Amino acid sequence: MEEVKISKKSKVGILPFVAEFEEFAGLAESIFKNAERRGDLDKAYTKLIRGVFVNVEKVANESQKTPRDVVMMENFHHIFATLSRLKISCLEAEKKEAKQKYTDHLQSYVIYSLGQPLEKLNHFFEGVEARVAQGIREEEVSYQLAFNKQELRKVIKEYPGKEVKKGLDNLYKKVDKHLCEEENLLQVVWHSMQDEFIRQYKHFEGLIARCYPGSGVTMEFTIQDILDYCSSIAQSH
């Protein structure tokens, strides 16, 4: 495990020692499930799985082609699936830890890769929130020259539906390049990205409703549009 070398040119995918641990544990369970020396096997499992965890992390830190979060997410997802299937009772804590690592790195990858798809809008509303934090009442923010209704409209105009869809399409291609086929997490990641984008969208909608009440200013696309874009992009690739 410690000597594993990964290619700098291709995706990392599932590491050989992660697949080998799965094979070894499956074989060991079929032979020694109720053996008298079960305790020795459990001790070996605990040592081995620690080695697997440590070295997945090491490879992830050294990976150049594949983002660190993807190496962690895919391999810990695989480990979690293996431990769930084999039900090895002495590795229950490790199963939970693998699931947690998978979930954390999925979330981190989604937030980092998605970033701020509506960057100028993000920037505008950060300014709005800063004014509110300084003590200006929400419904009075629109009296500030830099944050009046016309300025908001101008920023919103920069994000018509077709631009948003184009941005999402490029994002899908980037994610597809990062992920390996055997772990099959593309749709899971894509769905999480859709949820995160909708969360940002709702945040903006809430700020518009509170800071620009009755202004009639709305985004140029709806949540339903986001769902449609994401669905049609996933189907077209």
Automatic annotation (TrEMBL):
Identify one Gene Ontology CC term for this UniProt entry.
plasma membrane
Q: Which ranges carry the Exocyst complex component Sec3 C-terminal domain?
A: 1-214
Lineage, top-rank taxon, reads Eukaryota
Pfam families (UniProt xref): Sec3_C-term (PF20654)
* BP terms from Gene Ontology: exocytosis; Golgi to plasma membrane transport
What is the protein's name according to its record?
A: Exocyst complex component 1
| Single GO MF annotation | phosphatidylinositol-4,5-bisphosphate binding
